[in-house]
Structure formats: C-alpha cells, structure tokens
From TrEMBL:
<protein>
    <recommendedName>
        <fullName>Trimethylguanosine synthase</fullName>
    </recommendedName>
</protein>
<dbReference type="InterPro" id="IPR019012">
    <property type="entry name" value="RNA_cap_Gua-N2-MeTrfase"/>
</dbReference>
<dbReference type="GO" id="GO:0071164">
    <property type="term" value="F:RNA cap trimethylguanosine synthase activity"/>
</dbReference>
<dbReference type="Pfam" id="PF09445">
    <property type="entry name" value="Methyltransf_15"/>
</dbReference>
<dbReference type="InterPro" id="IPR029063">
    <property type="entry name" value="SAM-dependent_MTases_sf"/>
</dbReference>
<dbReference type="GO" id="GO:0005634">
    <property type="term" value="C:nucleus"/>
</dbReference>
<keyword id="KW-0489">Methyltransferase</keyword>
<comment type="similarity">
    <text>Belongs to the methyltransferase superfamily. Trimethylguanosine synthase family.</text>
</comment>
<keyword id="KW-0808">Transferase</keyword>
Length: 243
C-alpha cells in the first residue's frame, strides 16, 4: 500500500467496521461474510452502508472476470464497468490482466471513493480510469468512440434486497433501470454486453434481446452450492458454459 493511501481521509458516509457492535443491524449479515466479499478486508477496505448490499463477492467477481477475459472476442481490449459500486468487479477485471484499460463508472461520489481506495489496496488502481457520473451519460458523451473495442459489463441496482421474495424476478419492472432501458442504452455503444442480474431473473425476458437465431449464454455463479446471481452474455462470447 502506498503512503497516500494510508493517509487518505474517508468521507463521513464511508466506513471500515472492525467490530460487529459498530455495524448497522441490516448489514451485519454481510459484514459477517466480509472476507468472502473482500479477502483483503482487514487491509482497510472501505464501503458505504448501502454498498454492502450490491457488492459482488470476490470469488464470484474473479470467476466472472476470468470468463469474460477468456471468452470475449480477441479484438476487444477495453472493459467498461457501468456500475462500479465499491469496486468488487472492477478490481477483478483489472487483476485479470486481459484488458488494456478498465473504465469504471460510478454515480455516487462517496462510493466511487471507496472503489478507488479498494483498488489501491489490491494494487490495481493504476490500471483503471474512473468516471463519476451517470453511466448512460458517460458512455454517450465520453466513451462513445471506444464501443467497437469494448465489452460492457453492468451490475445494476436490482431495486434492493426485496428481489429475493419474487419467485421469478420481473426484469421489465426492475428499479431504477429495466432490462429494456439497460439493453437499449448499452447496445447503442457495443454489441458485447454482460449483465449481472438476480438468480431468479425471468430468462424469457432475457431471450427477447437475442437477435434472430443468435444465442446468449446464461451462467449462474454459485458459492457453496447456491446461486448468488446470474450473468447473461450477449454477443460473440465463445461459450463460457464449457468452463
Ligand atoms: P443477497 O441475496 O442479498 O445475499 O445477494 P445472499 O447472501 O446470497 O442471500 P441468501 O439468500 O443466500 O442468504 C446475493 C448477491 O447478489 C450479492 O452477493 C450481490 O452480489 C448481489 N446483489 C444483491 N443485491 C440486492 C444486488 C443489487 O441490487 N445489485 C447488484 N448488482 N447485485 C446485487
């Protein structure tokens, strides 16, 4: 870790909890799994209280990064992470070594600070270009020309942990961005799109965005025998299901 990392000041809504007594009750369950979420948690990982709900556990983030690195078309050298959050996926993409550059977008300034700080802990901050803002605006206004060289990964908000109570999750009413909004916006940028979505997502809705007789792959990412979430791969990914 560098000196400037150690002396950095955390904004007021950013925390590194050391003991369960400090942790708000509704995130205690996540804090209990902190080393599965960030194996380097004790090196001073930062999170906002809301960021705990959406962060991808490290083994899952690494597996997804590994699949995208292996199966994305060769000509793609840029990875755009549209919802960087506290950095779980972004760090894994940078660690994979597959990308010339990782572009990470996050709207919430405090959460973006967490992502940058956490990337420093993992030693990959220098491989990432950070954008503070709405991902649709950043992609349209600042990254547009990179579309043909990029893979777009998005782990959007799912409308809160309440997603668990739906037997089949309706992606058309997902808040604040429906599957239709996400796909329509992202497909104006690139045709290589990976979305991280609830494990109970309605796959019939995912199929609607597959052109003609092309195919998409849906992959469940599991820990200890239970699916955590799925990824849908749209584009020319060479069959992650074979791994
Ligand atoms: P979870 O269902 O809240 O936890 O999230 P868990 O421990 O699997 O619940 P249980 O029923 O198994 O006890 C599962 C995973 O979904 C988390 O690890 C996050 O990666 C992801 N996740 C959860 N939420 C609410 C979101 C979200 O809003 N957006 C994104 N992108 N990921 C989420």
């Amino acid at each position: 870790m560098s000196e400037d990392h150690i002396s950095e000041e955390a904004p007021p809504e950013v925390h590194h909890y050391n003991e369960i007594g400090e942790v708000p009750w509704d995130i205690q369950n996540y804090w209990a799994q902190r080393y599965r979420i960030f194996s380097k948690y004790d090196e001073g990982v930062w999170l906002t209280d809301d960021a705990w709900f959406g962060v991808t556990p490290e083994p899952v983030a690494n597996k997804i990064a590994d699949h995208i690195a292996k199966y994305a078309p060769e000509g793609r050298s840029i990875l755009v992470d549209a919802f960087a959050g506290a950095g779980g996926n972004t760090i894994a993409f940078a660690l994979s070594g597959r990308w010339k550059r990782v572009y990470a977008i996050e709207k919430n300034p405090a959460v973006l600070k967490c992502a940058k700080h956490n990337a420093k802990i993992y030693g990959v901050d220098h491989k990432i270009t950070w954008f503070e803002g709405d991902c649709f605006d950043v992609i349209k206004n600042q990254l547009k020309v990179l579309g043909p060289y990029s893979v777009l990964f998005a782990s959007p908000p799912w409308g809160g942990p309440g997603y668990r109570y739906d037997e089949i999750f309706d992606l058309s009413t997902m808040e604040p961005y429906s599957i239709n909004t996400l796909f329509t916006e992202y497909s104006m940028f690139t045709d290589q799109i990976v979305l991280y979505l609830p494990r109970t997502s309605d796959v019939r809705q995912l199929a609607k965005y597959v052109k003609g007789t092309e195919q998409a792959t849906v992959m469940h990412y599991c820990m200890e025998g239970a699916s955590k979430a799925l990824c849908v791969y749209y584009g020319d990914f060479r069959g992650p299901s074979t791994d």
